[in-house]
Each structure stands twice: as structure tokens, then as C-alpha cells.
């Protein structure tokens, strides 16, 4: 019995082409699905990005762009479009690439995959429609007793069902590849990372169904009450785990990019796979850090889920933080860049937007999103910044500088390899990851700074101008919000260039034919490195060791500075 | 020196590698552990909160 007979859709004979740059056999049906999902992702990024810019300009007290009703509408739409639609459409494209393309096999049941895609599109449009009607400004978390229009929840449910179909197609494609022996031994590491993302996606979507279906029935008047704390508990199993799908997917893209551009292999397959295994077992439990201030849950549940289990997943991230730059250094040294400690890094292809996007994502995810995530996930420290702007600062460090930047970098590989179009305006493309990365890092850092100074999240007016008792934040908080607004403009500019280059390339880019030399070339051994199981083995990596030492020193300093700060608040003398 | 490591069919595959190669076992673990530790335990905590009178 094949995977397709199990899910009831025996496909016709697949049609393949061979990629001239990687040597990979590409199923044309999978290629079309990857294109469709990638295009949809970029469209929703555009919508979500514009809404995000309007939110940041409203939070900038000197500008204060939108009235309150529009602010909450824009904040809701921003969250749904970028945290769910942009990211998950792109991730479905990653799943199809990591299964059908990297395993040289046909995609399972492409008609079902299209059904999933259509459901995701309909769901995303329906949710956007509900938000734009103005009666669903419940923000991304949509906590009851705030109630959105039924179409808001229905859209999310349809989107989730479509994404679940995408995951089923991915797993079925893995079964087909194994049955038809299109690879030997274990799947490549990038595919293993995609498996990790898909597993977390199944848990995420199931949790979403468990909470969103009754909430939809509640909005229709068929259920009288939704317990707010029960909602928060189950909703965060979806809400935070969606971001764990991202982490697994963007780490996979780090390995993919290093392999394709530099011929990098993992330093150790065993170590990198164990790190992904840590994600599979423990990463979703970090959802609990959103509930660390809830009195209804006791400390045992909070500490086991965050301080014990979450740290094991953090260990996984730190392993990837060592092995990805380590693999890059090893590959670059093999490519001839052996002088000194950092020639491998100085002579890396910084002018290739796929590389710069990937490396900036790696550094910023670790230093900004990663370190702040551990601080937020520590029960005692969490009270310092719970429900302040520090929280969106942290997740912009993970989702924007980490995931979005990695996905943007990955797009510069997808365009020539899957769309088979040469990237137009390469100078703009070179600039784009830096512009977006600096802007996004600024957003994260300045929101965290403002949060540390007590500025609340989800608040239209930080001046509290209509409050009966006057209150004013420090001048530093206002400075942070202004710098956040300027950073948002930079990031929006970088995002706009990304959309223009991508759309322009898809529509007007020169069609790549046999013998074409890419503007942003790949490594000659990239295709083999990315599609086979294999380790680089033991090599000396002095540059990576120095980078990792800097990271650990920063991590420890920041962690203990927060404990010091906490001790001052407690006034234990 | 880089090495490709296809596992010869005659060689015994290490247990950990067999676990990591078993996608559906990983799926089971990845869904069950957070369901038990996060959701079920959390729900039990919430339903045991006494109702206000």
C-alpha cells in the first residue's frame, strides 16, 4: 500500500526536471505548489507589513498616526498576517521543498495539496475581511471575553485545516520517498529540520482546533461561555507553538543556505539531529511562559514547562548556534579561506542576499530573540517585563530578525532554483537584508528597552493623555518609542524592496535557461551537500569558538543583570 | 576530511539513529509530550480551582 492509497488519492505519473545548478530532480507538481505558497506568503507579508508600520507609527508618540479604533484593527491584522499567514504559507513551501525536492521524489497527492492551499487562501482572506470590517479588533491573541465576528475564527480554522493538509502531504511524501528508495540511509539534515517543523505544526494546529472551534461556536451564540483562563492555556499551545514551527523551519534554512552557497555540511549529523530532537520533545512547552503571571496555575506547572523543559529546547538552539557557523567556517576553510581566525568570515559572500539574510538571521536570532526568550521564560524574571513592550520586542527578535530574515534570504534561492528566474535589480537585492535586518533589530531592541522602562504592550496611547490621574513615562521611554518608529520605517523600506524585487523577478526576471550563469552563484558541491546525509567531521574552528564565547558572555551578563535588577525591585537589604 | 555516511545495509543501525529515522515515532512523541505536560496538566490545574461562592 502506498502513501497515496492511504490518503485516497493515487496521482498520475509525475513529471520531473533536473536542476542545472544542484543536480536535484524536481517534481514539476511540487515546484508549482512551492511557487503558489511562496507567492501567497509574500502577498500576506506585504499586507501585514503595512499594518505593522502603521502600528509602529502610532506607538511613536510624536506621530501617533492612527485613532484608537484603527490602531487595534491594524494590530489585529498585523499579527494575523505576519505571524500566521506569511510565515505558514512560506513554511508549507519549505516542507514541499524539503520533502519532494531534496529527496528527489514526487510529491504525494498534489490535488489534495491544492485543496489545502485553497483552504488556506480562503481562510486568510476571510479573517482579513472580518478584521477590516472593524468588529474583530481583538488582537492576535483574541482573549475572551473580547469577541470577534464569527468569520474571524472561521477563517483561522479554515487556514489551519489547509495547513494541516500541507503537513499530511509532507509526511505522505516522506513515505513515498522511502518506499521508492529515492534516498539512502537517513534523510538529509534539512529534511529532518522540516520534519521537526511539521511535527510541531501538527501539535499547534490540533491545539488551535481544540480552542478555536468552541470559540467560533461561542461567537455564533451556540455556546454560552468560554473560560478566559482555559482559553489562554490552550490558545498559547497554538499561539506560541506557531513560532516554534518557525524556529525549526528557519534553522533548516540556515543549514540549507550554508550548504547551497558554500558546500557546508553539518559538523556532526548526530549532534545537529539531537538538537532538533530536543525541539520535538520540549520546544512547544515554552508556551507556558505566556502564563507565568497567571495565579490559576501553580509554580510546579510553570517551572517544569519553562525552567526545566524549555531549557532543554534552548540547549538545542545553542547547539545550532554553534554548528551552523561552525559548518560555515569548516566549509570556507575547505574553500581556501584559511588565513588567520576570521578570513573565512570576512571573505564570505556578504554580497549575496541569501547569505547575508541567513547570517544576520543567525546572529540576531541568537543575541536578540534567544537571550531575551530565556529571560522571559524564567518565572522570577518574567515579572519584570510581563505584558510590557518587552514581549513584542522579544518576539520581533525571533520572528522578524530570525524567521522573516531567514525566509527572505531563502527566497533569493527559491527565485532562481524554483521559479527559474534571474533576480532583477541585484544591487537593491544586496542591500535589502541589511536594511531590513537593521530596522528589525532596532524594533526589537527599542521595544525591549521601552518595556524594561515599563511601557505596556497593546496600548494605543503610552502618554495616558485621557487618564483621570496623570502619569508620565520617563524621557528614556519616549526616546525608545521614537527610535522604534524610525527602525520600523527602515524595516518597512527593506520589506518594500524585498516585495518589489520578488514580484519584479517573478513577473519580469530573465528566464533561466541551460548554461546561464547566476548573478548570485551557488557552490558547485551545494546540491550534494544539501541532499545527502553526511558530517564534516572533526575540524579546528577557532573563529566559531571566539564567536560562541562572545555569545555566552553576553548571555550570562544579560541574564544576571536582570537578576540584579529584580533584586533592586524587591528591596532586599 | 569530509565524509558521506550512507549506512551499509549489513551494518547495524544504532538505536538512536533508528529512533531519529522513525518519523511517526517522532510525531507521536512531539504531540504526546506537550499534550500531557502542558495541556492536560494545565487543564487539571484549572479545573481544580474552587468556584467562587
Descriptive account of the structure:
The complex is a heterodimer of chains A (573) and B (53). With 573 residues, chain A is mainly α. Chain A has a single domain, classed as Up-down Bundle (Cytochrome C Oxidase, Chain A), CATH 1.20.210.10. Chain A has helices at residues 3-6, 28-59, 68-101, 110-132, 150-179, 189-219, 228-239, 241-262, 269-282, 299-334, 343-346, 353-376, 379-385, 390-417, 426-452, 475-508, 526-531, 542-570; strands at 16-18, 25-27, 534-535. Chain A has a two-stranded antiparallel sheet with strand order 1-2. In chain A, a hairpin with a 6-residue loop joins strand 1 (16-18) and strand 2 (25-27). In chain A, helix 3 packs antiparallel against helix 4, helix 3 packs across helix 8 (241-262) and helix 10 (299-334) packs antiparallel against helix 18. The mean pLDDT of chain A is 94. Chain B has 53 residues and is mostly helical. Chain B has a domain at 16-47. Chain B is 60% helix and 4% strand. Chain B has helices at residues 15-21, 23-47, and one strand at 3-4. The radius of gyration of chain B is 21 Å and the shape is rod-shaped. Chain B starts with a strand and ends in a 6-residue tail after the last helix. The model of chain B has no long low-confidence stretch (mean pLDDT 85). The A-B interface holds A 171, 174, 184-187, 192, 195-196, 199-200, 202-203, 206-207, 210, 227, 229-230, 233-234, 237, 241, 265, 269-270, 273-274, 277, 280-282, 284-285, 287-288, 291, 296-298, 301, 304-305, 309, 334, 532-537 and B 1-7, 16-17, 20-21, 23-24, 26-27, 29-31, 33-35, 37-39, 41-43, 45-46, 49. Strand 3 of chain A pairs antiparallel with strand 1 (3-4) of chain B, so a sheet runs across the interface.
Amino acid at each position: 500500500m502506498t502513501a497515496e492509497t492511504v490518503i485516497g488519492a493515487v496521482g498520475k505519473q509525475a513529471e520531473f526536471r533536473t536542476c542545472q545548478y544542484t543536480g536535484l530532480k524536481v517534481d514539476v507538481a511540487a515546484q508549482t505548489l512551492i511557487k503558489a505558497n511562496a507567492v501567497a506568503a509574500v502577498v500576506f507579508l506585504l499586507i501585514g507589513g503595512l499594518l505593522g508600520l502603521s502600528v509602529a507609527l502610532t506607538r511613536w508618540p510624536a506621530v501617533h498616526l492612527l485613532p484608537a479604533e484603527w490602531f487595534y484593527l491594524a494590530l489585529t491584522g498585523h499579527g494575523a498576517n505576519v505571524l500566521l499567514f506569511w510565515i505558514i504559507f512560506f513554511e508549507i513551501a519549505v516542507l514541499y521543498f524539503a520533502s519532494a525536492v531534496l529527496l528527489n521524489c514526487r510529491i504525494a497527492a498534489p490535488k489534495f495539496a491544492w485543496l489545502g492551499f485553497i483552504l488556506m487562501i480562503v481562510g486568510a482572506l476571510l479573517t482579513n475581511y472580518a478584521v477590516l470590517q472593524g468588529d474583530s479588533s481583538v488582537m492576535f491573541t483574541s482573549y475572551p471575553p473580547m469577541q470577534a465576528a464569527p468569520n474571524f475564527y472561521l477563517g483561522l480554522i479554515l487556514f489551519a485545516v489547509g495547513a494541516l493538509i500541507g503537513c499530511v502531504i509532507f509526511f505522505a511524501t516522506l513515505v513515498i520517498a522511502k518506499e521508492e528508495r529515492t534516498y539512502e540511509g537517513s534523510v538529509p539534515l534539512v529534511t529532518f529540520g522540516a520534519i521537526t517543523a511539521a511535527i510541531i505544526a501538527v501539535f499547534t494546529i490540533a491545539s488551535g482546533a481544540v480552542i478555536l472551534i468552541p470559540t467560533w461556536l461561542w461567537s455564533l451564540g451556540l455556546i454560552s461561555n468560554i473560560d478566559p483562563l482555559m482559553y489562554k492555556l490552550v490558545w498559547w499551545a497554538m499561539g506560541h507553538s506557531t513560532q516554534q514551527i518557525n524556529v525549526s523551519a528557519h534553522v533548516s534554512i540556515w543549514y540549507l543556505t550554508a550548504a547551497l552557497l558554500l558546500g557546508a555540511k553539518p559538523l556532526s549529523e548526530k549532534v545537529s539531529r539531537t538538537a532538533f530532537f530536543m525541539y520535538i520533545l520540549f520546544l512547544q512547552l515554552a508556551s507556558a511562559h505566556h502564563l507565568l503571571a497567571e495565579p490559576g496555575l501553580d509554580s510546579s506547572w510553570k517551572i517544569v514547562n519553562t525552567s526545566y523543559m524549555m531549557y532543554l529546547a534552548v540547549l538545542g538552539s545553542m547547539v545550532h548556534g554553534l554548528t551552523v557557523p561552525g559548518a560555515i567556517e569548516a566549509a570556507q576553510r575547505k574553500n581556501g579561506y584559511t588565513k588567520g581566525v576570521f578570513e573565512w568570515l570576512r571573505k564570505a559572500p556578504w554580497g549575496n542576499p541569501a547569505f547575508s539574510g541567513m547570517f544576520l538571521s543567525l546572529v540576531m536570532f541568537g543575541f536578540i530573540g534567544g537571550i531575551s526568550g530565556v529571560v522571559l521564560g524564567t518565572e522570577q524574571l518574567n515579572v519584570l517585563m510581563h505584558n510590557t513592550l518587552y514581549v513584542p520586542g522579544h518576539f520581533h527578535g525571533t520572528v522578524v530578525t530570525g524567521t522573516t530574515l531567514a525566509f527572505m534570504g531563502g527566497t533569493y534561492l527559491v527565485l532562481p532554483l524554483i521559479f527559474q528566474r534571474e533576480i532583477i535589480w541585484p544591487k537593491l537585492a544586496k542591500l535589502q537584508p541589511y536594511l531590513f535586518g537593521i530596522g528589525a533589530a532596532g524594533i526589537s531592541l527599542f521595544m525591549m528597552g521601552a518595556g524594561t522602562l515599563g511601557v505596556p504592550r497593546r496600548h494605543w496611547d503610552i502618554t495616558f493623555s485621557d487618564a483621570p490621574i496623570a502619569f508620565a513615562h520617563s524621557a528614556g521611554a519616549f526616546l525608545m518609542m521614537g527610535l522604534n518608529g524610525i527602525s520600523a520605517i527602515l524595516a518597512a523600506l527593506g520589506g518594500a524592496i524585498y516585495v518589489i524585487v520578488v514580484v519584479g523577478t517573478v513577473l519580469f526576471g530573465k528566464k533561466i535557461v541551460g548554461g546561464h550563469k547566476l548573478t548570485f552563484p551557488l557552490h558547485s558541491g551545494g546540491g550534494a551537500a544539501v541532499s545527502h546525509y553526511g558530517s564534516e567531521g572533526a575540524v579546528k574552528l577557532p573563529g566559531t569558538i571566539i564567536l560562541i564565547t562572545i555569545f555566552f558572555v553576553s548571555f550570562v551578563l544579560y541574564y544576571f543583570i536582570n537578576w540584579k535588577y529584580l533584586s533592586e525591585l524587591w528591596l532586599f537589604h | 576530511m569530509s565524509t558521506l555516511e550512507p549506512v551499509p545495509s549489513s551494518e547495524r543501525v544504532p538505536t538512536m539513529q533508528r529512533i531519529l529515522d522513525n518519523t511517526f515515532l517522532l510525531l507521536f512523541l512531539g504531540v504526546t509530550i506537550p499534550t500531557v505536560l502542558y495541556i492536560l496538566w494545565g487543564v487539571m490545574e484549572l479545573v481544580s480551582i474552587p468556584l467562587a461562592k
